[in-house]
Structure formats: C-alpha cells, structure tokens
Recover the amino acids of this structure.
C-alpha cells in the first residue's frame, strides 16, 4: 500500500478554509476520510488483513440511532447508540441492510477494497436512516427497462441471458441484484420501454429500432418489488395495435399497475390511482412527441391506441384533474435528446408547467444517461434516470442510478441517489470508481441548477434544507519532474464530493490541466462481481481474461495468455465508445507487464458516421497511435496521447496489439489500470486555487515542467462536507496509475 500524508503538525501544508455554498443541500458524507488532522491518499496493492468492519448510523439530523439491526451478507448483529463493529470475512463485496424501529430500512453495498482503513480494518462512511411518520411514503424509481434484443440474441459469443426454455428464471436472475433496493420502499416504479408479448408480430412501426420483451418480464419486475410501470414512451407502440393489446393484457394479468398508454386517448391520459400508506396518489405518464412514422406512436381520439401525448394542453388538463381531488400527483415524462447532459428546454418547460399546475414530483426519461436534479417551487425534478435494464453495449449508458424519494403527503422531504452499474446488461449496485463516476456526474449537472450533493454511505442525498459549509484543503504531491517533461497523476479521490480546484508550485513555469477518465473499469476489480458478464473488453480465448496472479494495484489485472506458436494478441475496448467530446486532447494510460520482452502497439479504430456496427468492428481501418517496448519483469507505464476525432465518426475504440519478440512465443502479458482520459481544461499556470469550477468530474492531473526540474506541488481541493475532518479516515479505491 502506498500512502501520501498531509499533516498540519509536521508538514504545515494544509489550509482549511470554510466556505459556504448558497445552494440546495444534498447531505453526503465522504468515503475519503480525514482523521486527527491528517489527510492520506492511499492506493492499495492488496486487501489488508482485518477482522472488523465499523460504522456509524444516524438519523437525518445526525443523531445516533439507538437500537438497530445490521444484516451483513447472511449474518445479523444488533447495534446501539449509532455505532457498530462486526466481523467480516475476506470477501470482496459487503452487502449491508440497516433497519431500526421507526425508520425506513436501507440497503448499501461496498467493496472491501474501498473500505480498507490503512491496513487496520474496514470502516464505513456514516449512513443515515429516514424516520417514519404518518403520511410519509418512500418511493423507488428506476429508469428505462426492456428485456428483448441482445438479452436473448447477444452479439457474437456473448452470454445468453434469457434462454428460450428458462425465461421465468432468467428474467428474475436479471433483476436479482436490485430486488433488495425495491424491497424497502413503499412503492416501486420503472419506465417499461418495450412492448411485452410472447412473439414478435408481423407488423411493426416504420422506425429504425423496435423492441419487444417476453411476458415473463412483467412477472420478474413484480418479483423484484416494482409495483407500477409508466408506458408513456416512444416504444410503447413499436409493434402497433397488436403489440399494445398484448402488452396491456399481460400487464392486466400481472401485479403491475400502469398508466401512460391505452387503446384510446382518454385511457392513455388516465392516471393510475392508488392509496399508499393511506395517502392518495396519482401516477401519470407521457411521451413528448408523436413520432414521424405512420401510424404515429401517440393515442388519438377513440379510434387509435398508443402512448399518452405529453402536450402542454394534455399535461395541464390531466394533472389539474388529479390535483383538484387532493391527490399527490407524480408525473413521468419521456423527452429530451438521447445521451445529452441537459434536458431540452421543451422538457424543462413541460415538467415545470406540470408543477405549476400542482404536480408534486416530476421524473423524466429517454436520454439513456443520467442527468441532474432541480428543486422547483420546493418540488423535485429528475431530468433523466438513464437506463435501468437495457442492452446498450457502449460504455456511458451503463452508468445509472435508482432514485428514492420520501414524500410527506404532497411535500417533498428527501431523495437518495443509488448508483447502478448495468454490467453486461444486468443492473447491479455500483461500487468504487464506477459509483464515483455516477455521483460526480450527477453532482456537476445538478450544481448547474442550484442543487449540491454529498453522501449518506455510498448514496447521494437531496433535501431542501440550506446548504452547509465545506472545506478547502491543499495537499502536497511529489512530482520529481524533469525540465520539459510531463507527468499524469491520478487524483485518487475515493468518491464524489471531493473536487480538485487548482495547482500551486513555486516554479511559475509549471503548467497543468485536469482530465476525466471515461471507462472507470480498467482496474478490473469489479470484473467478476455479481456473476454478471463483463462485455466491455476483448477476450480472445478462454485462457485470457481476469487474473489474480499479478496486479499493479489492488488484487486483479487482465491477462493475455501466451501459448506455443502464438505470435500476436489483441486487447482493448470490445465496442466503440459513443459518448466522447470531438476534437479533444485525450490519452490512453495504464500499466503493462510481460513474462518476456514484447511490443505493445496502440491503435485507433472509428465507426464512420454512416457505418454499420458489425462491419466497422470487423473492417474499419486501424490507425497506429503509438507503441511501447516492454521488457521482461517489472510493470511499465503505458501512455499514448491523441486527439479525439472532430468529424466523420459516430464512435471509436482503442485497441492494444501485443507482439512477441522474433524467435519467441508470445508470453503471458498483464494489463492494469487502463484508462481513457479526456482532458477537460487547457494548460494553465500553477499559481493556486480557484481556477477550476467545482463540482467537477476530474480524475487526473497532467503537469508539465518548464525550463527547470520540479520536485513537488500543492493540489487545492474542495470537500463539500466539513464533517469529513471527523468522519473520514483516508481510504481510497485503487485509481488509474500515473504515467
């Protein structure tokens, strides 16, 4: 384990500056901890030998929960006065379920690697429970759901998730990891973005992409704890009237309630009404546009079925009817543009108009990626929940979240963001750097609308309370940078809520820039978690793949298996990354080790704007970006700089070809901490804090020396929770290695 310490007592380099942010509070507590005035950035090379896991459990005011129960994996212990200590086995994942009389239960999952307390045990970040009270209801929301297409007919040799003769058990297996997260809620909801039918009919809408999922989808969702599905989306009418009739029949025969579609316009616009904990609720669903096909996707009059059209007139009329009867009204709207960071103005206006009309909560879908939150007139708007159960193969849409919302009648009380990693098309709890990526993105996008984020354990929390103070810190880093050279350093932040804001050095010729690592899975630590197949990396043969034999950091790496007569092998991104910034300086970084001398060549391969996926993967030309000779033995830093394409490509990927030395067989080769960094700021002078806006999603720092060597510098950071100085103990998930 390598640790860098900052102590105000022995180095005199830490500055603590209290800052207040006049925004909506999201009470989050850090996983990176500061204790006894010492900050540590730790990167672990192995699991520490430890016997205990400790933590604190409080209510939302910070008061300790007096009597509670913690179920850790299969063991149950009782705790008092808000603190607990329990034995843990050397397992990679820890599932914790917290419950107490008078409180809503909560489930959180962590990897032990991110909880390692400097080799002396495991410590949880503080976790909060929400108190029960009359009229308070806990709602759980997931994003876009389908179980068709690649679930039963995957690409190439990928694992089949829904087998023809095992649909009931296989659809339940897909949702088994998120079932505990719905079980604790009073009411669960998802966006069912597919028709449900036993077989695809002959007719379908005149559109590029159409979905249908097996009838067992409905039973699996109900088994997982989903109570209601919104059908107000652009795939509800994919297979026309026949598909819609089949879907409605299956849903009517299932425990699932629904709204947002029907065989007539009146039926489609009707709300689903239900009493939850003796409180009257109404759920409305809409699609934001008719679509260009004929027939279009919206219900119309008494003669055509489809989705409920979310026109301004329809929203005002249908929301007003529910509000007039004193019902807590939840609106779900399908709109905006796919893969965007922000909602369209049309989506924003329609959701705000729904709230103007009296709606109490507004949830949006369709972009397939998560967007931020806004508090409007003391009511919560979630602009996109992203995917939840979906088979999109490229990387960005696989990072998502569930949303918990506690309502006190018609009043918004609190929300929690539960990070989800859709791993091999299976929704799983996100841990480590994937969780941080999700929460950091959400923090940055929500901050644009005045909402600040923090933690309760590994979840984000949103309230309407005034924002609290944060702290600004400066920590020393060793550079040993030769004049004229550049170095890339992982910031090593454990979780969201800690943001780099600038760099300071005595050498005024030192310049720096910040970047964001886009893949967040190149440490391979979560590769085999949750029994969900990892589909993001090229695995050429059964002997290659995840390895525990070697690791640069942590306990895992990716192994290319050598063999007699084998000359070359390819590793890298199995599919194209669609979400990238054009014409942006970027870097492939990582570590590589070989049992004999080899050469690693890095290639760019793009999918042309009009190129077909399969043809582009097989036949698109490859462009050499750089190469590295790797000598037998120690780990070597791998780094290649390039610019992302400006135009002409829909998406791209990076490939690493490994070549043997002449006269030798290809040896075993190991890769670790592989990262694709997009640089997000231009180089600027290292003259202090305040140059970089936060919250941000930065994970890496590049520093460039001028005409003289540079030994060290200060990184300025903002920590959004001042309680960290008491609660945080300096443990960090393994980060991407520096070059």
């Amino acid at each position: 384990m390598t640790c860098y310490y900052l102590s105000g007592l022995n180095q005199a380099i830490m500055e603590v500056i209290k800052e207040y942010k006049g925004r909506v509070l999201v009470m989050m507590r850090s996983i990176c901890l500061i204790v006894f005035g010492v900050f540590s950035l730790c990167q672990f090379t192995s699991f520490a030998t430890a016997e205990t896991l400790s933590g604190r459990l409080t209510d939302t005011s910070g008061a300790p929960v007096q009597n509670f129960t913690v179920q850790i994996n299969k063991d149950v212990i009782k705790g008092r006065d808000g603190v607990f200590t329990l034995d843990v086995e050397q397992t990679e994942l820890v599932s914790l379920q917290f419950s107490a009389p008078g409180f809503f239960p909560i489930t959180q999952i962590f990897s032990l690697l991110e909880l390692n307390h400097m080799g002396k045990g495991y410590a949880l970040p503080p976790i909060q429970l929400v108190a029960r009270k009359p009229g308070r209801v806990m709602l759980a929301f997931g994003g876009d759901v389908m179980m068709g297409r690649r679930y039963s007919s995957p690409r190439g040799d990928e694992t089949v998730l829904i087998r023809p003769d095992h649909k009931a058990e296989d659809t339940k297996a897909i949702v088994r990891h998120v079932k505990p997260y719905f079980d604790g809620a009073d009411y669960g909801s998802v966006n069912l973005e597919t028709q449900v039918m036993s077989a695809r009919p002959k007719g379908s809408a005149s559109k590029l992409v159409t979905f249908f999922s097996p009838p067992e989808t409905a039973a699996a969702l109900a088994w997982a704890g989903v109570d209601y599905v919104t059908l107000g989306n652009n795939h509800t009418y994919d297979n026309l009237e026949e598909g819609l009739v089949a879907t409605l029949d299956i849903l009517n025969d299932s425990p699932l309630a629904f709204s947002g579609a029907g065989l007539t316009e009146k039926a489609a616009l009707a709300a689903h009404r239900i009493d939850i904990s003796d409180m009257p609720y109404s759920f409305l669903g809409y699609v934001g546009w008719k679509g260009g096909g004929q027939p279009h996707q919206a219900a119309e009059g008494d003669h055509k079925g489809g989705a409920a059209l979310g026109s301004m007139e329809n929203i005002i009329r249908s929301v007003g009817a529910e509000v007039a009867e004193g019902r807590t009204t939840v609106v779900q709207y399908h709109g905006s543009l796919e893969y965007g960071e922000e909602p369209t103005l049309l989506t924003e206006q329609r959701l705000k108009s729904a709230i103007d009309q009296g709606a109490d909560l507004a949830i949006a879908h369709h972009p397939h990626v998560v967007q931020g939150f806004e508090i409007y007139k003391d009511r919560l708007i979630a602009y996109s929940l992203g995917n939840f159960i979906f088979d999109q193969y490229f990387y960005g849409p696989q990072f998502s979240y569930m949303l918990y919302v506690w309502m006190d009648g018609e009043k918004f009380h609190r929300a929690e963001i539960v990070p989800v990693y859709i791993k091999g098309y299976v929704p799983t709890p996100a841990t480590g750097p994937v969780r941080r990526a999700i929460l950091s993105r959400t923090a940055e996008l929500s901050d644009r609308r005045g909402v600040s984020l923090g933690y309760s354990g590994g979840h984000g929390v949103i309230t309407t309370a005034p924002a609290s103070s944060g702290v600004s810190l400066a920590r020393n880093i060793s550079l040993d940078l030769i004049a004229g050279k550049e170095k890339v350093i992982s910031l090593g932040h454990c979780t969201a809520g800690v943001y780099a804001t600038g760099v300071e050095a005595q050498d005024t010729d030192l310049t720096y820039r910040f970047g964001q690592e886009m893949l967040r899975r190149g440490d391979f630590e979560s590769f085999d978690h949750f029994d969900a197949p990892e589909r993001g990396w090229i695995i050429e043969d059964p002997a290659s793949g995840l390895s525990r034999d070697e690791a640069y950091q942590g306990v895992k790496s990716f192994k290319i298996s050598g063999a007699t007569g084998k000359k070359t092998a390819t590793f890298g991104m199995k599919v194209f990354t669609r979400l990238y910034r054009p014409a942006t300086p970027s870097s492939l970084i990582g570590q590589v080790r070989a049992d004999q001398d080899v050469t690693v060549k890095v290639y760019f391969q793009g999918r042309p704007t009009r190129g077909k996926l399969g043809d582009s993967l097989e036949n698109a030309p490859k462009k050499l970006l750089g190469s590295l000779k790797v000598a037998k033995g120690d780990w070597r830093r791998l780094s290649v700089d390039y610019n992302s394409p400006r135009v002409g490509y829909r998406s791209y990927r990076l490939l690493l070809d490994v070549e043997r030395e002449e006269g030798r067989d290809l040896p075993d080769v190991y890769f670790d901490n592989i990262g694709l960094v997009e640089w997000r700021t231009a180089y600027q002078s290292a003259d202090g804090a305040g140059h970089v806006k936060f919250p941000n999603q930065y994970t890496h720092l590049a520093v460039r020396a001028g005409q003289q060597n540079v030994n060290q510098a200060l990184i300025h950071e903002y920590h959004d929770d001042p309680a960290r100085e008491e609660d945080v103990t300096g443990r960090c998930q393994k980060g991407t290695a520096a070059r």
Summary: The longest strand covers residues 411-423.
